[in-house]
């Protein structure tokens, strides 16, 4: 649900504008506000799950996500919807880091890779299937009110998931009293510094189209200062207590390179759905449903690739990720070529094979990269470490949408919009993000990333040693 709500709202924008008479700036906040608060909460939420109970935090986030989805669907004004989306994003960020924490806690070695592979299938399919489901709901319930069901669809899913979570997810482990007290220190100063720094980075990125002029980029200066202060505080705080983020993790090559790789790849990966939806709906006048169906091949390929990647990552490690990135680059370049050769109303058919290939490659990237990145993270820090990686992915998503969107809109903003040319340029920008991610993967693979099934156990033993 949480990842579906990133992409499903894109196809509902015309319906939201019609139903609520929303201004363009309000629609922008409906889209970007969710991503902003989602990214803000990830690391503190991961830390909370590590310290208390992942199941309790997961269920709380799930219940709150359902409630805020209902509030969004009942919105009587654009401002109401914006506030509901901000709250919904925060609730999504609360529960998502618990998932990687559970996988780290419950699985080892090749089994962990297969578990992350299943997670990758969910990530790939839910992100790509959002436009299809959104288009279907708007077709069923009408343009004026169809957007409400984009949010209401979360309610039955969430209500079914809560009792299953309570029954199936493991409760908190019993720990010695001293360790428990240490783990319950939540580092409020670190949380505040990191939160403010993340917001100041994300704001100019998510508002790139709404805030005109270069002044918005000045926010990156205080963002850098806040993050530098965060690093200094965490080093000091970590001498006596458990910090929000264990900075020693970044000394592990597989973790630091994997987090950077995720940031760069998501910059290319997320933006393509944004411009494909605009191209098919606004450029080629596809219906919301047909527009969603046009990106279905990517979803199918992603699900297949993720399942395969989960089984192969224990054997091939970061080499598998590098192969996936190469396939993504070829697939996206092929989609750009297909639009150039057979644009117009036939573009949906022409891009089927390239998008299927790119989706398969993406399935070999996202969760295999997460598996390798977290392979040496102690289980007791799995939630916060996963939250850092996912925050990097959210920053990458915002960066990619801003960069790819800027190139795309530069071609369609005049009196004679060149939709095909705009899509080709946007896809090539996405390829330009994938290439440096590929370089990082090759570097880590050549240096020998640690994917040994005992890596996490060794890290746990090290973390558990006194002093």
Give your account of this protein's structure.
The chain is mainly α and 467 residues long. The protein has one domain (4-464): Up-down Bundle (Growth Hormone, Chain: A). Helices cover 78% and strands 0% of the residues. It is built from 21 helices and no strands. The chain has helices at 4-7, 13-20, 24-51, 54-73, 78-106, 109-141, 146-152, 154-168, 177-183, 188-206, 220-237, 253-283, 288-294, 296-316, 318-341, 347-350, 352-363, 366-373, 382-412, 419-447, 455-464. The protein starts with a helix and ends with a helix. The relative contact order is 0.14.
For the sheet with most strands, the description reads: none
The overall pLDDT, averaged over residues, is: 83
Q: What is the rounded distance between the termini?
A: 41 Å
What shape does the CA trace take? globular
Question: What's the number of domains?
Answer: 1
CATH class: Mainly Alpha
CATH fold-level topology: Growth Hormone, Chain: A
Strand proportion, as a percent range, falls in under 5%
Helix content: over 70%
Structural class: mainly alpha
Q: What value does the Rg take, in angstroms?
A: 21 Å
Listing every helix as H and every strand as E from the N terminus to the C terminus, the arrangement reads HHHHHHHHHHHHHHHHHHHHH
The CATH homologous superfamily is termed MFS general substrate transporter like domains
Individual helix count: 21
What would CATH call the architecture? Answer: Up-down Bundle
What is the number of strand segments? Answer: 0
The stretches of 5 or more residues where confidence is low (pLDDT under 50) are 175-183, 449-467
């Amino acid at each position: 649900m949480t990842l579906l709500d990133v992409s499903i709202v894109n196809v509902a924008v015309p319906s939201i504008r019609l139903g609520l008479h929303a201004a363009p700036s309000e629609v922008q906040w409906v889209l970007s506000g969710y991503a902003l608060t989602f990214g803000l909460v990830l690391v503190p939420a991961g830390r909370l799950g590590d310290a208390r109970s992942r199941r309790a935090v997961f269920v709380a986030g799930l219940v709150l996500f359902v409630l805020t989805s209902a509030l969004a669907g009942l919105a009587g004004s654009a401002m109401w919807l914006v506030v509901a989306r901000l709250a919904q994003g925060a609730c999504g960020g609360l529960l998502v880091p618990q998932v990687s924490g559970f996988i780290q806690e419950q699985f080892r070695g090749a089994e962990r890779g297969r578990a992350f592979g299943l997670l990758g299938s969910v990530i790939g399919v839910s992100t790509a299937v959002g436009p299809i489901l959104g288009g279907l709901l708007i077709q069923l319930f009408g343009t004026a009110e169809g957007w409400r069901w984009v949010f209401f669809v979360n309610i039955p899913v969430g209500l079914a998931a809560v009792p299953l979570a309570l029954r199936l997810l493991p409760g908190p482990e019993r720990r010695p009293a001293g360790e428990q007290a240490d783990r319950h220190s939540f580092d409020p100063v670190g949380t505040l510094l990191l939160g403010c720094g993340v917001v100041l980075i994300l704001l100019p990125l998510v508002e790139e189209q709404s805030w005109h002029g270069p002044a918005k980029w000045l926010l990156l200066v205080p963002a850098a200062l806040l993050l530098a202060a965060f690093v200094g505080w965490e080093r000091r705080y970590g001498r006596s207590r458990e910090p929000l983020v264990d900075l020693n993790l970044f000394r592990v090559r597989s973790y630091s390179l994997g987090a950077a790789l995720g940031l760069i790849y998501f910059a290319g990966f997320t933006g393509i759905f944004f411009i494909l939806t605009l191209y098919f709906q606004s450029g080629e006048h596809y219906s919301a449903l047909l527009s969603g169906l046009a990106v279905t091949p990517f979803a199918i390929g992603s699900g297949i690739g993720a399942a395969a990647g989960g089984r192969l990552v224990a054997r091939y490690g970061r080499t598998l990720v590098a192969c996936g990135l190469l396939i993504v680059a070829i697939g996206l370049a092929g989609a750009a070529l297909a639009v150039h050769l057979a644009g117009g109303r036939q573009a949906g058919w022409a891009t089927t094979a390239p998008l299927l290939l790119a989706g398969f490659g993406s399935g070999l990237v996202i969760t295999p990269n997460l598996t390798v990145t977290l392979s040496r993270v102690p289980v007791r820090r799995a939630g916060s470490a996963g939250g850092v990686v996912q925050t990097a992915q959210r920053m990458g998503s915002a960066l990619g949408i801003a960069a790819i969107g800027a190139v795309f809109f530069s071609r369609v903003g005049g009196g004679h919009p060149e939709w095909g040319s705009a899509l080709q340029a946007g896809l090539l920008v996405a390829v330009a993000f994938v290439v440096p991610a590929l370089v990082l993967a090759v570097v880590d693979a050549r240096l020998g990333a640690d994917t040994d099934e005992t890596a996490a156990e060794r890290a746990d033993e090290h973390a558990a040693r006194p002093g």
